[in-house]
Amino acid sequence: MTLAPFVRIVAQGKGRARALTFAEAQEAMTEILEGRAAPEAVGGLLMVLRLRGEEAQEIAGFTAALRAHVSGALPTADLDWPSYAAGRSRGAPLYLLAARLVAQAGVRISMHGHNAYQNATLGPEDIRALLGPLVRYDPLSALCPEAFRLLDLRADLGLRSCINTVLRMWNPSGADATVQGVFHPSYRSLQAQAAEILGQQTLSIIKGGGGEFERHPSKDTVCFGLRAGAHIQQTAPAMLSETRRLHEVEAAVDAYKLWHGQSRDAFAEATVTGTAALALWTIDPTTTIAQAQVTAQDLWANRDAYERLTA
């Protein structure tokens, strides 16, 4: 089989083209991941979908194929935290410190990603150093080389593709809960719909800094997602009145020094604790965002002690 039938379905012209069904999308992605599709057809399919816009059942079908292609590669985690940069310049990756805080609460976190388009100097070992010993991080290039090659087509095509969305949906550790960041707000609903199709029960999606799951503390943050399989939309109110961009060049933050108390920045600290609070709220159905914020602030204030206890 080739990819031609699937390209024809989505690209045969106005009035005749249609979206792929879940089964068709799953079959098409299986062909791609198993190396049976011509590179021209892969690029053609991805760019047609980029131009037309992604559909939830297509993303779900692609994701199901990826999950089947790479199964059992990671130990089961409590929280899946994808980290795939959106491609714009940004400052310190404060969401890594937020994940580190959440792990200190006993949450098993699996983070997977590729960050070259976000910060070419931030390699896997740099990420692991910021995450600390309690958070597992796996770069996409090692976890699934075939998916990495698809993501890296951005260098040839000049545009992101639906693979970015699929990787956020992947959840290779089979965690019960997932947090996801997006750059474009419309993807919050799309990804929640795709997750519902895949049978996921617990999910939080926000428009985050650089497309990561990272909360802006001076803005209301609208959270989309699923709880017990049902769609939710809830607003986390702004934590600060300070008007400031999330990553100001003039207010650069050293994440390592911030964690170790060698520098102080109230805005950056609120970014960390606010992001951690949304993750804690995601995995605990009995808590509120406000209660999770209190927990996150306690974790931050006592992070050295928590880390010594769990070392």
TrEMBL record:
UniProt keyword Transmembrane helix present: no
Pfam families, alphabetized: Glycos_trans_3N
Cellular component, GO annotation: cytosol
Keywords, alphabetical: Glycosyltransferase, Transferase
Biological processes annotated in GO: L-tryptophan biosynthetic process
Keyword flag Transferase: yes
Residues of the Glycosyl transferase family 3 N-terminal domain: 14-69
SUPFAM superfamilies: Nucleoside phosphorylase/phosphoribosyltransferase catalytic domain, Nucleoside phosphorylase/phosphoribosyltransferase N-terminal domain
Listed InterPro entries: Anthranilate_Pribosyl_Tfrase, Glycosyl_Trfase_fam3_N_dom, Glycosyl_Trfase_fam3_N_dom_sf, Nuc_phospho_transferase
Gene Ontology MF term list: anthranilate phosphoribosyltransferase activity
Protein name: Glycosyl transferase family 3 N-terminal domain-containing protein
Organism of provenance: marine sediment metagenome
